[in-house]
Automatic annotation (TrEMBL):
Residues 1-24 form the signal peptide. Keywords: Cell wall, Cell wall biogenesis/degradation, Glycosidase, Hydrolase, Secreted, Signal. Its main location: secreted. The lineage of its organism: Eukaryota, Viridiplantae, Streptophyta, Embryophyta, Tracheophyta. It comes from the Eukaryota. InterPro entries: Glyco_hydro_28, PbH1, Pectin_lyas_fold, Pectin_lyase_fold/virulence. It is found in: Secreted, Cell wall. This is Pectate lyase superfamily protein domain-containing protein. The keyword Ribonucleoprotein does not apply. One of its GO terms (biological process) is cell wall organization. It comes from Mikania micrantha.
Amino acid sequence: MDKHLLKAACICFILSFFQSSCNASSYNVVSFGARPDGRTDSSQAFESAWRAACASSSSSMVYIPRGMFMTKPVVFSGPCTSSILFQIDGTLVAPSNYQDMGNSGFWILFTKVSRLTVHGGTIDARGSKFWACRRTGSHCPPGVRSISFLWSSNVAVSGLKSLYSELIHVTVSNCNNIMFEHMNIIAPSRSPNTDGIIIQSSTGVTIKNSLIRTGDDCIAVGPGSKNIWMEKIACGPGHGISIGSLGNSLNEAGVENVTLTNAVFTKTQNGVRIKSWARDSKSYASDVEFRNIVMRAVDNPIIIDQTYCPSNRCPRETSGVEVSNVRYNNIRGTSTTVEAVKFQCSASNPCRGIQMRNIRLTTPNRATTSTCENVRGSASGQVVPRSCL
């Protein structure tokens, strides 16, 4: 058997999301004109290989061998006839000139696909020159998200390393049943808006066994997200793991059934955070659990902020977002600030059903404190700092 077909057969057997008979056809991007020299634009070759795989009547594989492949923005669109394995053994790099990324906002985009597995490899967006442009305040392009999944379902992404995104590393929007595992996401702590993974308007998203070191939120769970499971996540540096921001518009969808378990935060700006704008909205965050978490020198380990405003032009209202049934269980570690727990909830829509159990957050040589505004809830077990609920 051809070695590429053998690899496809083995991986489709191992990865549960890649349902097939393992009679996979292989489409090597080099056969379509891609060159692994890090300079030649391979965009058209990538898209041609994808179209061939997408039209295949049987399960297929798009294969990117070892080497460095430069690609401008590419779109891999469906629907496709059968399941596809997108196997990356090499490295995808962005053009050396960030102006060549265009204005679409996307670099690698999968849209309207189902039964897709993306496995292995590295994507390097070479974002440093773009960040420098933004810091100077000069005329810069809008920037791109490194890899995005839109209007897709039954997707598994495993073993992917994302480096130096211009903006967000991974975006998930209007998707169902998506799994990310063994992700390695890296950008400098001062890189602007380089969130790790952003989820919105999606149901059934799982993120496991992943390391995220970046300049913004490690993971952000946005409006319209339901049934989100995050497990064994190492976050830091970055801004922590957030629900929100919510309530930016009146008829915005809410967030529900979100779990983060077995996570470690290291030198992050926030730990676990729920944030909403101080304006009228029908949005909400409910049935959320943060459990079995270690904080290591985190500025704001536990925070609900319903006056979120990252700029100086802030709305002068109270948040309409309803925050309810949020559980904090077995969270321990160190805070860099005395105020280790802060619940700053809406006066018009107080937080309710907030539960704290077995919390121990300390700071060297000082006693930590907690702050509660417009919040209703309960505490049990050992709770340090002393609960204000």
